[in-house]
Amino acid sequence: QQGAMFEAGLKTIQFGRFELDTWYSSPYPEEYARLPKLYICEFCLKYMKSATILRRHMAKCVWRHPPGDEIYRKGSISVFEVDGQKNKIYCQNLCLLAKLFLDHKTLYYDVEPFLFYVMTEADTTGCHVVGYFSKEKNSFLNYNVSCILTLPQYMRQGFGKMLIDFSYLLTRVEEKTG
């Protein structure tokens, strides 16, 4: 961007095998937000300050898929329903990650009233997060989606449409209008 001032802080994240440029700032704790690069476990979504810390974490992290129930699987694609109340830290970390790629996201910490539907792609190492959508457990207006994101490395491959279609199918199964 021409004429833009250099802004210190988070510019990239290491997420699984991908190094991703961030698009927006996210309210990570200041000691992490001021780093140029953040290292995020692609399975439990814990964030760390260095590649060494991430390597040590990966050696002992037992997670290979999102918490919650797998409610859909076709081929290598799965969707997990994750309750923000039961898996608060995971959902908060998912929201912080999402904010790096969404300009108008405002919810990060108040995740308890939401269900998160996390789409993954599986290989021999585990289920890799493709994207997600969230919805209020009790939406006054019966919205079928509160927030939706496909991670940049999976964009333009039809996953966003799959997430939207899945949200409508879920609404239909719940016998609600959306």
Key phrases:
178 residues, alpha+beta, 5-stranded antiparallel beta sheet, 4-stranded mixed beta sheet, 4 helices, 9 strands, 23% helix, 29% strand, globular
Structural write-up:
23% of the residues lie in helices and 29% in strands. The chain is α+β, with helices and mostly antiparallel strands. The strands form 2 sheets. A 5-stranded antiparallel sheet has the order 5-6-7-8-9, sandwiched between helices. Strand 5 and strand 6 (77-83) form a beta hairpin. The protein is globular.
Short synopsis of the structure:
It is built from four helices and nine strands, in the order E-E-H-E-E-H-E-E-H-E-E-E-H. By secondary structure, it is of the alpha+beta class.
Secondary structure: number of strands: 9
The major sheet is characterized as: 5 strands, antiparallel
Report the end-to-end length measured between terminal Cα atoms: 39 Å
Number of H/I helices = 4
Strand arrangement in the largest pleated sheet: 5-6-7-8-9
Q: Please tell me what the overall shape is.
A: globular
Structural class call reads alpha+beta
**CA gyration radius, whole angstroms:** 16 Å
The helicity comes to: 10-25%
Low-confidence stretches: 1-6
Element string (H = helix, E = strand): EEHEEHEEHEEEH
Query: What portion of the residues fall into strands of 2 or more residues?
Result: 25-35%
The overall average pLDDT, rounded, is 91
